[in-house]
Amino acid sequence: MTAPRRSLISSRLGSRLGSALGALALVTLSLSALAETTLLNASYDLTRELYKDINPAFIAAYKKDTGQDIGVNQSHGGSSKQALAVAAGLQADVVTMNQTPDIDLLVERGGLVAKDWRDRFPHGASPYTTTSVFLVRKGNPKGVKEWADLARPGLSVVVPNPKTSGNGRYAYLAAWGSVIAAGGSETQARQFVQKVFANVPVFDGGGRGATTTFTQREIGDVLVTFENEAALIARELGADQFDAVYPSLSIDASAPVAVVETVVARHGTAAAAKAYLDFLFTDAGQRLVAKHYFRPRSAAVLAENAERFPPIKTFEVEQLLGPWAEVQQKHFAEGGIFDQIVVNR
Length: 345
Fold this sequence. Notes:
It is a single chain. By secondary structure, the chain is of the alpha/beta class. It has 2 domains: 3-129 and 254-308, Periplasmic binding protein-like II (D-Maltodextrin-Binding Protein, domain 2); 132-251 and 312-344, 3-Layer(aba) Sandwich (D-Maltodextrin-Binding Protein, domain 2), CATH 3.40.190. The chain has helices at residues 3-16, 48-66, 79-87, 100-108, 122-125, 166-181, 186-198, 207-215, 227-237, 261-267, 270-280, 283-291, 299-304, 317-320, 324-332, 337-344, and strands at residues 26-28, 37-44, 70-77, 94-96, 128-130, 132-137, 157-160, 203-204, 222-226, 242-245, 249-251, 253-255, 257-259, 295-296, 313-315. A 5-stranded mixed β-sheet has the order 1-3-2-4-13. α7 (186-198) crosses α16. The protein is globular. Mean pLDDT is 90; it is low at 1-34.
């Protein structure tokens, strides 16, 4: 790749994809920073572009419905890092994460989120879903088609760190589940996942960092990431650079949302925070979800955007692998299977 081309790619990615990753997420202000009521949404790092569209649309709808001005600020980072930041005191009114354990953590840490948070919004408080797919170099020179291919000797696999990223966690569980769904044993699943992660050259803290590693640093033969991130890369860099590959089976990665009860009580923003999350389930919100290649819950909106979402068979974590709390403890707690695999890889 020539130097001018590399510079162009870096510039285009930097302007749209962003590169800020750290222990605490970068907070960016919305267009309505001077509004009397301002919400903070702590979200994961692959929703930056989504909420750049969601927030002004909500602000306009809220003004129309209530006659009141409102502002929305954003905080982005790895999903698990974000949950820990909120638990440590980040004053987020709402959390929009990519995995259930990150919100359950906030239930456990002093009741920041209500125990029945899943029942407070439709679809288990999940306005959209996505799935893990493979992004490969143009023409798929390594012939990557299925999860089994990721364990081939010599293949370089880029995936975010499952300890800090929901994106990486879903990728890990999708690989594990691909063995279980085919009738394999837990021992076989562990052996397979160990081979896959032996092919991972570096662990980035979040999905956006993994994207940068694969596209800008040109590390890896395949990036395992969410469907929407693969689509964003294709749009930004062009179809002549990368191909998205859909395995025959992947994981349902539902993205849950919740109000942070302790914060809205302190800020007096409970009604506004609920209205914000309610907006995600409206037709207007669902169409913006689909625009950014997240799979909407609305059947009508999904049908309108069928060309964006190739059919793919998925499994749910709790149906195939057990309750999220048990999966979290078994695989990702300190000293869990993932830690053991990484130590021995």
